[in-house]
Amino acid sequence: MPQETKPVDLWAGPDTTPDLTSRHVILGPVTERTGRQLGSSDWAHVLDEPPYGCGRRLMYRKTGVEMSEPSNDYETNAMYRGKSMEPVIVAEYEKHTGFRVEPVYEYHLPESLPTWWRPHPDGKIHRNDGRGPGALEAKCPSIRGTWRTYRREGLPTSWIMQLQSEMAALGARWAAPAILPWGGEYALWTDQDGDVPEIRRDDEMIAHMVDLGEAFLRKFDKGELPAKQDPHECKACASCPWIGLCQGRQAAAEVAGAAGGHDELILEADPALEALLAQWDEFEEIADEAKAQLAGLKDRFGEELKRRGAVAIRLGPGRRLIRRIDTKGSPGFDKKRLQAEKPGVFKEYVTAPKPNSYVRIFGARGGGNGD
Ligand code: SF4
After folding, report:
1. Residue nearest atom 5 of ligand 1, based on CA coordinates
2. How many domains does one find in the chain?
3. What mean pLDDT is predicted for residues 159-166?
4. Would residue 302 count as lying in a domain?
5. I need a surface site. Which of 68, 71, 78, 327 has the fewest CB within 10 A?
């Protein structure tokens, strides 16, 4: 059985005592962060979505398991930043669009939604063109961290789910992600027409989220923990306050060592290192930009091949463009399943780990990089 709920509240809000049996939801930090409910930011964990999502970590928090690390790192720096920047971003959104944003302290949960559905929208948008209200979600991702990936590959599924959960709770048909990237030009993210993008409500996705949430909460009811992540690969583990409990002391020490916990030299300033880091940041920016340009060019080549009805084009000596259609796909290997179902076989073929030394650059990107 889950342990008794022990709320951890780092940004205390109004001291409200919600009536959890009612569909009248009064929002407060406690209702959102512990117990048998799923708040908007929990979806990344339900999905185990990289880089910081982990269902197991969410379960430790929801069931009030005591943290094993002497840390108050309840979630991530990004969450603290997002919370403090929220009023600024809402004000920027109002200025940019001319729409009015009303704070959301409570709502009446529609009958079609389960009672554990507990999003906390950052605002309800009222516009003056006759369209009904929309949900607002303020975000402040690091421009050197996740935002570069999201800008290139699209918003993460958990953000879309977050917006869907808020639309469903507010009975809205549309929502706006108001994104003010951190560390770059001070401007809201907009499309090529200069508008803040909007997302439409998707009832199919909402139904799927209800199933996903039910499956997660069934584990909660039985006191079951979701599977562990690999602490050497999962960024969430590096900042997880339950790592010692979850992965054992040795793995926790190894991860802390990789993140600079061992033999750490604290410097106030170092011009030589700072200059190298500035170069690092600059080259990363260029590399990201170049990757996006190359992907765009590849698409253009594909279109040209299609337009000319060719699967390949030879252009002078040595230059060929080939369009491949892979109907079979490539076979995958499910290492986790083998480990779970045939641990003996798995163990027999695992080789002894070799000492490995590498450098990771933390801070600038909000995580680590540069193996
Ligand atoms: S240590 Fe890693 S796998 Fe375990 S709960 Fe924390 S983030 Fe999840």
Report:
1. 57
2. 1
3. 95
4. no
5. 327
**Residue 213 falls inside a structural domain:** no
What angle (nearest 5°) sits at the alpha carbon of residue 111, between those of residues 106 and 116?
A: 65
Residue 363 has pLDDT above 70, yes or no: no
Mean pLDDT of 254-274: 72
Query: SS3 of 167, please?
Result: helix
Q: Is 134 helix (H, G, I), strand (E, B) or coil?
A: strand
The best mutation among 240, 245, 250, 336 to test binding of ligand 1, ranked by most ligand atoms within 8 Å of the C-beta, falls on: 240
- How many other C-beta atoms lie within 10 A of the C-beta of residue 356? 7
Q: Please report whether residue 214 resides in a domain.
A: no
Asked whether 92 and 98 are in contact (CB, 8 A), the reply is no
**pLDDT tens digits for range 290-300:** 887 888 888 88
Q: What is the pLDDT of residue 15?
A: 42
Q: Which of 69, 75, 237 to mutate to test the pocket of ligand 1 (most atoms within 8 A of CB)?
A: 237
Higher per-residue pLDDT: 339 or 165? 165
By residue range, what is the domain housing residue 176? 79-103+117-202
Tens of pLDDT, residues 16-38: 444 455 578 877 654 445 678 89
Which CATH number fits the domain that encloses residue 159?
3.90.320.10
- How many helices (H) and strands (E) the chain has is answered by 13, 9
